[in-house]
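Dear colleague,

Following up on Tuesday's group meeting, I ran the structure prediction for the three-component complex that the binding team flagged. I've pasted the input sequences exactly as they went in, so you can double-check that nothing got truncated or mislabelled along the way. The structure tokens for the whole assembly follow below. Feel free to forward this to whoever is handling the docking comparison.

Inputs:
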Amino acid sequence: MKYMIKTVDLTKKFGDFTANDHIQLNVLPCEIKCIVGENGAGKTTLMNMLYGMLEPTEGKIFIRDEEVRMKSPVDAIRNGIGMVHQHFMLVPSLTVFENVMLGNEIEKYGVLINKKSEVEKVSALMQKYHFDLDPMEKVENLSVGSRQRVEILKMLYRDVSILILDEPTAVLTPQETDELIADLKELKNQGKTIIIITHKLREVMDASDSVTVIKGGRTVGSMLTRDTNERELAQLMVGRDVVLTQQNNHYTPRNAEKIYEVRNLTTENIFGKQVVHAVSFEVHKGEILGIAGVEGNGQSELVKLLSGLMKATEGTVSFEGKDITNMWPDKIRKAGIGIIPEDRYAQGLCRQMSLGDNCIAGYHDKPPVNKYNLLQRKKINLKRDEMIHKYDIRVGDINGNVATLSGGNAQKIIVARELSEHPRLLIACQPTRGIDIGSIEVIHKRLLEYKAGGNSIILISSELTEIMSLSDRVIVMYKGQISGEVEPQQTSMTEVGLLMAGIHTDMEGQKK
Amino acid sequence: MQLLISILYDCIYHSAPIILCVLGGIFAYKANVLNIALEGMMLNGAFISVLVYYYTQNMVIVLVLTIITTVLYGLIFSYFGITLRGNVIVIGLALNMAAAAIAGFVLVLMHSSHIIIPDFSVNEFKVNIPLVGKIPVLGEIISGHPPITYISFILIFLIYILMYKTKFGVYVRVVGENEEAARAVGIHTDFYKYGAVLIGSVGCGLAGMNLSLERMGLFTNNMTAGRGFIAIAAIYCGQGDPVISSFYAILFGLARSLSVNLSIYAGNAARLFDCIPYIIMVGVLSFASFMKHKSVRERGFKVNE
Amino acid sequence: MNGKIEETVKAVLNRIVLVLLAFIIGGIVIFFIGENPLNVYYILFKKSFFTTTGFLNTLHYAGPMILTGLAIAITFKANIYNMGVEGSLLSGGFIAGILGAQLSCLPSVPLKIICLIAAALLGMGYAWIAAVLKIKFRANEMVVTLMLNYALAKVLEYLTTSVFRDLNAGYVSTKIVSNQAVFLRIFGRSRLTVFFFVILVILGFFYILMKKSKQGYVITAMGNNFEFAEATGMNVGKNIMILMLLSGALGGLAGGGWMLEDQYRYTLSFSGSPGLGWDGMLIALLGGHDPVGIFIAAVFYAGLKTGADSINMYTNVPKEIVALIQSMIVLFLAVQFFQKYKIPLFKKRAKEA
């Protein structure tokens, strides 16, 4: 057997849309292979086919030189393939051992679950692979890194020889990423074959033995990692040089006036745990303040607080001298603050409305689109056409609803809409998450343009490169608190990474 | 004293059908399939059991046909709501309408507005437990109920085990909490959703049978009078936990029992007492919902919580 | 423009097909009890649609259901499941009946206005209870309104049989309303009254509200999901109250109007069976929560209902067959949306890959 996994002309179509087009993939046994491509290139579709969650439209999959047809994850597992998804497939209210054993429960008397047996087995497994977890702990109480380990454990229990991980480091700090890579190399030494899907090129260079590049649903390159570099991979991924072209070159002087001030902001989740604790910061006029941090450290809750979707238990927020603590979203907008919400489909757009109607959401109250409480259709269409032109929004049916738009175009509508009302401050939460390079560029360009006009932005993102290249100042969140503040020009990624993990260093570089 | 005994006895009497609906319905709740058709399924159970007994006098056939027809309702609900992914609230309403329509249809064909089992005494199905029945006070309360009433209370314990200690229960909960996770390990989510709904059907069928045949030996259309919805309220208040939801069901039974027993003192206003149990349930639901949301700092409503 | 027309055409076709399907199944049942389905259906439709008086009567019966249909639509479309329209209708009808009988000293127009306003207010009050419980306590409005319906029915039953009972009537009812309160019939033999035109005006008002106004925009936004509405600054809590109150007012008006143009006294079968509020639910669903659709659905449905009485008189088929067909229509309605959106859903998933 030469290859562990081999795909020949693997194709997947959804209607007229081709997500994967004649993909050729070759994976050697006991190697770590990275599959790279930008968002929307088709990597997840490919992996879903390898894991039996989707069936190919055309083409074949060979595992250990035998052709396989997989109709469900059960088939994949039977072929020795396990997958760790980007969005964890765990049940929060169940314990670690219950989640690991899900689907493989051990029973006694034919119906009841044999708890003792299950715990024993899971503990033995954890020892074998050196995973340090408490089997009886409920998953809802675990950190993100630990949850990922439970996912991996789930697959290891099923004795898989091939492990696929989909964007595993999206939710990890740089240090946790290093730990994960070490774990994966150990698994490789124990005989496993590993496939990692990612768009982070540095990890590709650090972790893998070989890499395959996917662009527009096709394989555009396949080589040994040691024979290539980040720049070449980036070129293959997007068809041109380098990923982020927009840079903030216009730094705001430190003594510019303060326009937005947050003092001691605190709130709790339903269990009474403080998810945002005593957060304080300021934003100056004409400044982009970046808020960095691994997802899940309180950023979502902070954004909800600042945009009026969550109530603070302590603390104040003021804008241009006025107290706006705990204001509702409509009042916040009226005060001159624009909001790009975290979840573009759930919070930013209405699937049942047309493009035009979405262009005025949040501002449908104001003239000229609203006169005597009646919506003025002509004015709405005017606004919509303006936005389409300015932001290069690609749309099939101009009167259709927004469900058919791609992620990038959908996000552009939201950005266009918020900026068109000329707010003095923009809160932008994950503005370019999961969208194509072209749209990212347009959005970054407009954001910098907006800042150059004397306005301010609070930028929250888990994409560190985005924050570092756009912000004037960066504050880092860890476990609901601010762990530090840095200036992007003077700080290395490693230092920021440490702050993201809650480790403060003093001037000599000693860990506190 | 006699009044107290009467109240407690009636409490058990009135709670039983609700408990059965609740115990069946919590699975659909946990599986995240909102089943409002409990009312219609209970009505069907009540109708079929009396109808079949009227013609056959055979309890086995009654039981089998009642369960089969109610499960049929469940299958229609599941097919349209789960496999075809229709709007489950609308489907539930449709089935409630259908149950009443079918019952009404047959009643007209029988040229009567109700079905009465001839020579039926209220004591027909009552079970007098030997020994226990002789204990003063307690005996009078506990003994002398029809069999399904006893089954309903025993089931609280059994359903608890089913829900939390067996693979089926775990899977139903997993499907409701994180459907993708279930599918990723190869659990057939639709199968468990169907199962959850069908257990509900069985529960409602038995509840209906207890309501009409066992206790009264008669059927009039719409005699369930909203008990299915009371069960839904109890399930919501208890958040699908077998023991807690059953507690709320018993609470309703108590309210109903109080209203029946105390109305003798009220004369003409007796009718007013009938609405008390419903108002109490609204109050309880409001209280339970309030407690659930007390510590939520997130603003905004969620659809159909 | 093309996209919207295509959608509407698809929606209408969908409904025609499923209505036919329901009738076919009903036909099978009729066949099994020994009657000729085509004959039965002919009788069902003949009088209600194909004679002038019959058609006007159909419009008359459609009237209150247009209002209850609207009442349901403005809440259901916004993801609020208000089942209390029946209760609003009963309270509205009751108060109109009482006032109509007691205030016999007043002249015609003011008396009617007072009765209708009282009806709307009481209907609103009833809906207000459920709205407050939802907003302050997050109590599920569907369960609350379902139970309050039963409670209210009992209370009205009590009032009708004791305090307000008309002892001169042969059956349980309140006093008959005075002549000034009655809406007069306008076309001779048919039962159609002036109130029908009031209903049309209200329908027109709500057409503008739902399709062209800011409130209609908010309804669509809430109908998508509450999170979107909240995040873009629409105060969902406030709007739940507004919509519930509007819904209650419509229900109350429907009841009040019905009292003054048809029933003239409150009885235990005031709302018919299953109840004008429930009829409104079917109409709202069949009409796609759209004012024009509701009008058409109401007329169609009213024709079915009056036709049911004809069936009762001229054939051996129980009129419940119509109720059975209605429940099947509702059942099939529940799934038709799936067929419409199947493909775009896939396209979106693919783009995210």
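Chain B has one domain: 2-116+151-293.

Cheers,
M.
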